[in-house]
């Protein structure tokens, strides 16, 4: 049951911030994720439902305690999990990061064994994102044509699984940030994770450092997909087939520092599939 609780924000401490939300710890130690956007109420409700479902299925997620309304903003109250994100914990430990990515692939495979989640359809969500993407009309049409040829499904999909959305604890990894979760096909979900691993945000500004970072990211992404494919028996090519829709869908959100690279890759792939329209 969704509950509404009153939180006094000046008695909380902000401990994190992302593109769409701020994260606070309140005086009792509970975690408040407060959305920034005007559509935050729908995101909060979706995250509460998705996390509640994941928790009910025995997945290691923070227990959701209620939906918060405060000063015109909406959020979700969670139990506190003591741990840093996988990215923070292993930032200077590449061997440890490989082990954590192996664990994350096992977790994602486990997530995908759960079906009939009360969540939006993955294909429908992708089509909305493609329609809003910052790309030419021909590329949107091509991407939708590619989507028509890709499988649908009813497996639980996180939609945004990567090292910043998993907490490292002594008892194992805990998956957070379920607001983008859907009911869909596992290969699409893994393709989304690969895209983030391969071309997510970088802290580097120097060209040489960026190039080295890109090579490391590519190897980590390949290792992750290889691990998942070994676990699941899925062919790597079935994951690669989602690359164009995932890139174009990504271009519907806030512009990232690597926007130009994503635009170029989307156009390159789009020309490859242009015969479909």
Automatic annotation (TrEMBL):
Pfam (any one): APH
Aminoglycoside phosphotransferase domain: residues covered: 13-224
Domain of life: Bacteria
Keyword annotations of the record: Plasmid
SUPFAM superfamilies the UniProt entry points to: Protein kinase-like (PK-like)
Protein name: Aminoglycoside phosphotransferase domain-containing protein
